[in-house]
UniProtKB/TrEMBL annotation:
Biased composition (Polar residues): 22-51
Pfam families, A to Z: Mo-co_dimer (PF03404), Oxidored_molyb (PF00174)
UniProt xrefs under InterPro entries: Ig_E-set, MoCF_OxRdtse_dimer, Mopterin_OxRdtase_euk, OxRdtase_Mopterin-bd_dom, OxRdtase_Mopterin-bd_sf
Organism (species): Venturia inaequalis
Key words, A-Z: Metal-binding, Molybdenum, Oxidoreductase
Transmembrane region(s): none
Keyword Metal-binding: yes
Chain segments carrying region Disordered: 1-64, 535-554
The Moybdenum cofactor oxidoreductase dimerisation domain, residue ranges: 397-517
Any one GO molecular-function label of the UniProt entry: heme binding
UniProt name for this protein: Sulfite oxidase
């Protein structure tokens, strides 16, 4: 700034400091190649918020009424559902509509701070896509949110309004070893269909001897299918994604890469019938049947294409009775937001394979080529990114690795204690493995204390274990609590989040680290200082606010130097 210039006259861009420090996604590209070209950070359409009213004026079919006929609901009692997979012409028409419009880019949520709103992100693009296609999808965003309000706990953290993605706050994640239904996390990929149980039927086809349709009543008929209940933890591959984002930003779709914290995991007792029994009822497989496609009734969007939500699991998983068709959750009818009337529960696998609103099962000869299975939920090498990524370069995420997390204390929390800090959390391992040992450190992972066995919840093959420990802590100031888990196969966690970082920001399986400010009241000087704050009626928080009173009297200061060497030397 020139001498005499007012701050308001400074020519430095207001956001330059944010750019310099990496707090903005608008930091300019630095091109050091021999033939640099002009580039722009500006999206095609900067609009990222607001409402959207479909404009049908330039469409060949003309009106919203025609749109409703083109994409009409074809089954009574199946609201908000469109069958896409049987009708290529419908897919083509929807793609034509979407390609004729310009939609906003995803909101930026990885550079700088997350919005402080709840919901954190709105999902504007996803709402716009549903309304652009129209027909039964027009009202799905609003109806889905009403379902959230009706079925989920009032304290849920809404990461994404639509499609709904939400998790419980830390204080409630491990409050009980079995997650109450209203507190179980929700990771939806589309709107919430409303399918009446009496109108429901499950279609089984593909490489089975006797393709058929089965009603929910028949599935629940124990003379046809033996019923079973299993305690199963479901975990999203995005659990703890916020740690990877804080380390290095990655792919940034607000739904696919939602900024999950530690609550995208939950445990419930699921009741239903083994898929193996249902396939046996269809006469079993014909030659070549090796994988099972699972179809969800929600509508999914990918690069201006529409489809039903489709993934697959190997038949080898089905054969050992580890895929359940569930209609009950914790002894209650399956909530609509969790997939009613029927969903899949795939034991030990990534949550994305436990398809909600399951309406079709197709046996095929290879893993599904549907986009969710073949182009998403891929784990890339850390050198793979926007500059070179190809779908075939990623590992398909199926079984979840060993992981754990601290639920209490919270990050950057001031903790006043007397030499021990109570630490609480969860530990989990997928693929039919279970947490065998949990260890916690107060110094970033140099010295580990084992959680006593009696402080771990009951052991189950497909379930997490919640835990707590009174951790010895003598040191004060900023410390780093760290947790790691060993499963029964002696698998453990990478030490640092950098070791787990990947472009899709999936599977944050590294040791969970929580920085806290330790105030040890067992130390006499600390005890006296806290008493002084109390006597003066001065708040100790916020921590960074300078102390409003002298921290040492002039007399004490002078007395100290009378008995100690001076700070400076004279020769």
């Amino acid at each position: 700034m020139a001498p005499g210039m007012m701050a308001s006259e400074a020519r430095q861009p207001q956001d330059e400091w944010l750019l310099e420090q990496g707090f903005s996604s608008n930091v300019p590209l630095l091109n050091l190649t021999s033939h640099p070209k002009e580039t722009s950070n500006s999206p095609k359409d900067p609009k990222t918020t607001g409402t959207f009213e479909p404009d049908y004026s330039h469409d060949t079919d003309g009106t919203s009424e025609d749109r409703a006929l083109t994409f009409a609901e074809e089954r009574l009692g199946w609201e908000g559902y469109i069958e896409w997979e049987d009708y290529p012409e419908k897919k083509a028409k929807a793609a034509e509509i979407l390609e004729s419009r310009v939609f906003p880019p995803p909101p930026e949520f990885q550079y700088g701070n997350l919005p402080t709103t709840n919901p954190v992100l709105e999902g504007v693009r996803w709402k716009m896509w549903h309304k652009a296609v129209g027909g039964p999808l027009t009202s799905v965003p609003e109806e889905s949110w009403l379902r959230v309000v009706q079925e989920k706990h009032a304290d849920m953290l809404h990461l994404l309004e639509f499609p709904y993605n939400g998790e419980p706050p830390k204080r409630l994640v491990t409050a009980k070893p079995i997650t109450p239904n209203p507190l179980h996390f929700v990771r939806n990929h589309g709107g919430i269909p409303n399918i009446e149980p009496e109108a429901f039927e499950l279609r089984l086809d593909g490489l089975v001897k006797n393709p058929m349709k089965i009603s929910l009543a028949d599935l629940q008929n124990e003379s046809l299918f033996p019923r079973q209940s299993t305690l199963v933890t479901i975990q999203c591959s995005g659990t703890r994604r916020i740690e990877q984002i804080n380390e290095y930003p990655g792919e940034g779709d607000e739904m696919i890469n939602a900024p999950w914290a530690e609550g995208a995991i939950g445990t419930a007792k699921w009741t239903g019938v083994s898929l193996k029994k249902v396939i046996k009822h269809c006469g079993g497989l014909v030659d070549g049947g090796k994988h099972v496609e699972l179809y969800g009734a929600d509508t999914y969007f990918k690069q201006n294409k529409v489809m039903n939500y489709v993934v697959s699991v190997p038949y080898s998983k089905v054969k050992i009775n580890e895929v359940l068709l569930a209609w009950e959750m914790n002894g209650e009818p399956l909530p609509k937001i969790h997939g009613a009337p029927l969903r899949a529960v795939v034991y030990g696998y990534i949550g994305a394979r436990s398809v909600k609103w399951l309406y079709r099962i197709k046996v095929i000869d290879q893993p599904s080529r549907a986009p969710v299975q073949s182009k998403e939920y891929l784990y890339f090498n850390s050198q793979v990114g926007k500059h070179n990524q190809a779908y075939s370069m990623g590992i398909n995420i199926q079984e979840m690795p060993v992981s754990s997390a601290i639920m209490e204390p919270w990050s950057k929390q001031v903790v006043v204690h007397e030499g021990r800090i109570t630490v609480k959390g969860w530990a989990y391992s997928g693929g039919g493995r279970w947490p065998e040992r949990v260890e916690v450190s107060s110094d970033g992972g140099y010295i580990w204390y084992e959680v006593p066995g009696e402080n771990l919840s009951e052991k189950h093959k497909f379930s997490w274990r919640t835990w707590h420990i009174d951790l010895p802590v003598d040191h004060e100031g900023w410390i780093e609590l760290t947790v790691r888990c060993w499963d029964n196969s002696l698998n453990t966690q990478p030490t640092f989040v950098r070791s787990a970082w990947n472009w899709g920001l999936h599977v944050t399986s590294s040791c969970h680290r929580v920085k806290i400010y330790s105030v040890n009241k067992a130390k006499e000087r600390t005890r006296r200082r806290l008493q002084e704050f109390e006597d003066r009626n001065e708040p100790f928080l916020p921590l960074t606010r300078p102390t409003e009173f002298p921290t040492q009297s002039p007399e004490d200061y002078e007395a100290f130097w009378e008995s100690h060497a001076p700070r400076d030397v004279e020769d």
